[in-house]
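Continuing the series of single-chain predictions for the mutant panel. This is the parent chain; the variants come on the following pages.
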Amino acid sequence: MLNNKIESFNYNIFLFIMSKMPKVDPNFDWKTVTLGKPITVKEIHIQRPPEIQTNFEDLTIPAEITTDLKIAIQQARLANKMSQKSLAEKLCVTVQVIQGYENGTAIPNNLFISRIEKLLNAKLPRIKKKSKDIN
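Parent structure:
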């Protein structure tokens, strides 16, 4: 019984609020509202990139890694009783990088070779870059 009284009271409040709200004409022509400044579309002119020069005089071809460097890295690491994982952690690289250097699938630059030398206290052979003319 109390539940019905609350429902009827709520319904009466709802009807009262609805009677106080302004009436909306269903045939009213609503205008679109724009938030912000209107955007005008300008024509876009695309420029072609300049012609690419086919001058290969300054091109350097990376040298192939020698077996001396692969073996030297591995022997220096083993002489210091380090695993590939610990060497990689100390050089802040992944294990795959060290594996690639020792397998010969990756070529370290001379700066990285010097970092390995300092860490392992060993002298490693350096990579010499060959420059060829590709015309």
